[in-house]
Amino acid sequence: MFRQAACYNPPRLAEEILIVAAEASADLHAARALEELLRLRPGTRAFGVGGPRLRAAGLETLYPAEDLNVMGFAEVLPKVPRILAVLRGMRHAAEERRPKVALLVDSPDFNLRLAKYLKRLGIKVVYYVSPMIWAWRRGRARKIAKVVDRMLCILPFEERFYDGTGVSARFVGHPFAERALPGDAASYRAALGLPPGRTTIALLPGSRRSEIARILPPMLEAAERIRKLHPDVQFVIPVAATLSEEALRPALALHSGLDVRLVAGRADESVGASDAALVKSGTSTLESALMNRPMVVVYKMAWFTYWIARLLVRMSHFALVNILAGRTVVPELLQQEASPERMAAEIEILLSDPVARQAQLDGLLAVRRSLGEPGAARRVAEEIAGALP
């Protein structure tokens, strides 16, 4: 009589997921989500496109984020061959490795094209950080429904824009909602090695070379004007991880009389150390808002890009802080309005007018409260884990 053999359960192979996060902010958000996913599903492996934070979190990087880190119609043209090469490479990798789930973060022009191919392969697509369909290309929502299984929104009003479009959307809260209230300026100045008693202005010109080329020179010219009114002023510039200090040196060399401190990263601390800040429009405006320091938002783009954007965008504000507030909380200076004279004048109001300063600070606190409860990364990880077998 034969004894029944014991059941053999082969070891479970680690599940793979694909991640694409090309922007600096996307790299940060995706890295935190991956860290949370590994707590929920230890052994899960991730591959794709990412920056330094995702690499540190364990991403097998097939292509560095810098290959896709470009913005604007005019700016993207020289990089089209490389972008298409990365797209082909990611399609090939997906077909060969067949991950169960793809987490695509922001960068809709690239990621929605990739999502279309992933759906053909039967790969579930979780999209994190909704495209701005509420600003332009509103007809995109129905197209998104065909290629995205789950849309995870980080702005409180975005979920309702998908009602009736066929997109399964969820507001997961903003990743910045978990940030603690800032300390006083003196503590941040001490951490950065800045003298505590001097007028301090933070300059945040962006994380791309094209932004540095357009925005930093007028910011520094504005700084010269500010120095005439405040001879004791010092400036601090956080250098994004996607840049080197050398990218800023040519512009700084033209203003050797300014007291400028460059710091690697540490944008939050730089803003926290300031009495006021000049901030490039984008995610950095919301990060600065959470530091509860008054600011002026500026942006300059290639004129061709601006012309196209004017035809497509239908919004009363371009600063994310003002969009969230539904009103003008911070001054917005776009294109020719982002002149050194206007920048310096708006900063001076925030330095010298206590009523205007406090009104902005009150508005920034209201924006913070609108971002939802902490735990966005965990909720994203739960969505991914729920899509895995």
Describe the structure.
The structure is a single chain. With 389 residues, this protein is of the alpha/beta class. The chain has two domains: 16-174 and 372-387, Rossmann fold, CATH 3.40.50.2000; 185-369, Rossmann fold (3-Layer(aba) Sandwich), CATH 3.40.50.2000. The protein is built from 17 helices and 13 strands. The strands form two sheets. The chain has a seven-stranded parallel beta sheet, with helices on both faces. Strands 10-9-8-11-12-13 form a six-stranded parallel beta sheet, with helices on both faces. 43% of the residues are buried.
Annotation keywords:
389 residues, Rossmann fold, six-stranded parallel beta sheet, disordered N terminus
What is the tally of helical segments?
Answer: 17
Structural domains: how many: 2
What overall form do the CA principal axes indicate?
globular
SS content category: alpha/beta
In short:
The chain has 17 helices and 13 strands.
How do the helices and strands line up, and which of them pair or pack?
Blueprint: E1 16-21, H1 24-40, E2 45-50, H2 52-57, E3 60-64, H3 73-76, H4 80-97, E4 101-105, H5 108-120, E5 124-128, H6 140-147, E6 150-153, H7 158-161, E7 169-171, H8 185-192, E8 200-204, H9 209-229, E9 234-239, H10 249-253, E10 260-264, H11 267-272, E11 276-280, H12 283-290, E12 295-299, H13 303-312, H14 320-325, E13 332-334, H15 340-352, H16 354-369, H17 376-387
Parallel strand pairs: 1-2, 1-4, 2-3, 4-5, 5-6, 6-7, 8-9, 8-11, 9-10, 11-12, 12-13
